[in-house]
Amino acid sequence: MKGGIIKLVFLSVIVFGVGFGAATVVNKIKQTKVFTIKSVEVQGVINADRQAIQKIGAQFIGLNLFDSRLKETIVSVDPWVQRIIASKVLPDKIKLIVYEEKALFPFKNKQNKCFVFTGSGKEMAFNCNNVNIKAETKIHFDNAMKFAVILENMPELKTRQITLKDYSFEVVMDNNEVLICPYDYELLQSNYAMYENTIKERYKKIEYADLTVNNRIYVKGVLHAS
Question: Which residues on neighbouring strands pair with residue 88, listed in sequence order?
């Protein structure tokens, strides 16, 4: 019994010594100038305010790389920024990796103010240069997600004048022809192919073509003479 107590005391002394030694090493690391932060690199900025983020990084210059004030996640008030991760790069540098809201498409509202719709459903203020998409009503999140898929898969539409509505969107084609389009990409893809291969050949002039019904297109226009 006595021997067991002695062993326990001896083990406790060893553990304390190791812990004390580790703490000493950590303190020495914090005191050395080798790990003093000299530079900050910012990555991932597209729409956020880069200068503001660089100012956030500048406050860490001169700190030790292992300083407790250097948090892994940094808070930003920039509406574009979801989070900023601080990554240590030995011996004297940090990277600020910025995760932004994903911009889906710009649009102009009825008051002619411009915004970008994001992947989380936010509407960010935006400049109005070359914005050709107009929203007649408040954009529904589901429609926005579907419309973003359409733009990604049909990039030729990006240069057209587009009006977003509640249940469909309108695209102005050549000669002011208007296509009434569904938000369902597969339906639009199928009917758009029919429009290109059949309707345009059959009609001399088209006022509008409604592509919102499966396997059927309603057209207002002038037929070619038979």
Answer: 94
pLDDT at residue 104 greater than cutoff 60? yes
Q: What is the pLDDT of residues 6-15, one digit of tens each?
A: 444 344 434 4
With 0-12 / 13-18 / 19 or more C-beta atoms within 10 angstroms meaning exposed / middle / buried, residue 198 is exposed
In whole angstroms, what is the distance from residue 214 CA to residue 185 CA? 12
The residues pairing with 188 across neighbouring beta strands, listed in sequence order, are none
Candidates 132, 197, 202; CA nearest to 169 is 132
Q: For residues 180 and 184, what is the distance between their CA atoms, to the nearest angstrom? A: 12
Q: Does domain 103-223 have CATH number 3.40.50.1400?
A: no
What pLDDT is recorded for position 10? 41
117, 105 Cβ separation under 8 angstroms = yes
Q: Is the pLDDT of residue 199 over 60?
A: yes
